[in-house]
């Protein structure tokens, strides 16, 4: 058990402060989850994850229900999840997760963002080898014994458990597991009656690139440009 540092997160993810963008992202994820696994959260772990994240950002119930109805409608856009890879200035690797109903538009926009931000869009596999896709659960620490929790969850795929802070400086517990163990750890938390603040699949860097504050600002500008694109869900980086 240790402290998990979320690499320069406070300066990188300004988009998460924009509530409308959060709702749009989660709405797309709900549509994708329902189309893939049906509208019943009891049998659809991906949809349960979406519900947890909707609650964490205060997404109104009617917005959630509307997204489910859209997913079941015949005229709903078919969103495709596409991962783009590239480099920001100063050799920082970026992974850009998108959900789009028009991949031609999306790739053109993403390429333009990279070019204008002095970065370079790469080919598939050019960056992702520097990251590990993991399930990331965040819990409130109240009433939890961290050491006991770690021992209880190891058999369900837990790889890392540590303390961190959210964007507002509040203490949280961060749990990480391999991508293939996401469902197992999610169910274990549910069985223990623990409701995560959020449950996400994230790309965690295996190595980081040290940068100065000025260089970090250059990278931050490109990330913010990407995150403002309506087709972009998340951007991950390996900036140290």
TrEMBL record:
InterPro entries on file: Integrase-like_N, TACO1_YebC-like_2nd/3rd_dom, TACO1_YebC_N, Transcrip_reg_TACO1-like, Transcrip_reg_TACO1-like_dom3, YebC-like
The entry's keywords: Cytoplasm, DNA-binding, Transcription, Transcription regulation
Cellular component, GO annotation: cytosol
HAMAP family: Transcrip_reg_TACO1 (MF_00693)
Protein name per UniProt: Probable transcriptional regulatory protein KACHI17_25580
A matching Pfam family: TACO1_YebC_N
Family: Belongs to the TACO1 family.
Molecular function GO labels: DNA binding
TACO1/YebC-like second and third domain boundaries: 79-239
Organism of derivation: Sediminibacterium sp. KACHI17
Superkingdom in the source lineage: Bacteria
Main location, first listed in the record: cytoplasm
Any GO BP annotation: regulation of DNA-templated transcription
Cell compartments where the protein resides: Cytoplasm
Ranges where the TACO1/YebC-like N-terminal domain occurs: 5-74
Species classification: Bacteria, Pseudomonadati, Bacteroidota, Chitinophagia, Chitinophagales
């Amino acid at each position: 058990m240790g402290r998990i540092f979320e690499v320069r997160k406070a300066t990188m993810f300004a988009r998460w402060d924009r509530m409308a963008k959060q709702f749009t992202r989660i709405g797309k994820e709900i549509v994708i989850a329902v189309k893939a696994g049906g509208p019943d959260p009891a049998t659809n772990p991906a949809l349960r994850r979406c519900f947890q994240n909707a609650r964490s950002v205060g997404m109104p119930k009617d917005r959630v229900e509307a997204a489910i109805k859209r997913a079941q409608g015949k005229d709903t856009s078919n969103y495709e999840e596409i991962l783009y890879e590239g480099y920001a200035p100063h050799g920082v690797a970026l992974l850009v997760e998108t959900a789009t109903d028009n991949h031609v538009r999306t790739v053109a926009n993403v390429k333009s963002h990279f070019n204008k931000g002095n970065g370079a869009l790469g080919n598939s596999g050019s960056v992702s080898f520097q990251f590990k896709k993991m399930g990331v659960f965040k819990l409130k620490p109240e009433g939890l014994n961290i050491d006991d929790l770690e021992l209880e969850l190891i058999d369900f795929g837990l790889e890392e458990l540590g303390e961190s802070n959210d964007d507002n400086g509040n203490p949280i517990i961060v749990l990480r597991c391999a991508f293939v163990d996401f469902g197992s750890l999610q169910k274990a938390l549910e069985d223990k009656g623990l409701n995560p603040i959020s449950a996400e699949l994230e790309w965690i860097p295996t190595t980081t690139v040290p940068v100065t504050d000025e260089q970090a600002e250059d990278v931050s500008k490109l990330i913010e440009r990407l995150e403002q694109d309506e087709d972009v869900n998340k951007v991950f980086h390996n900036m140290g």
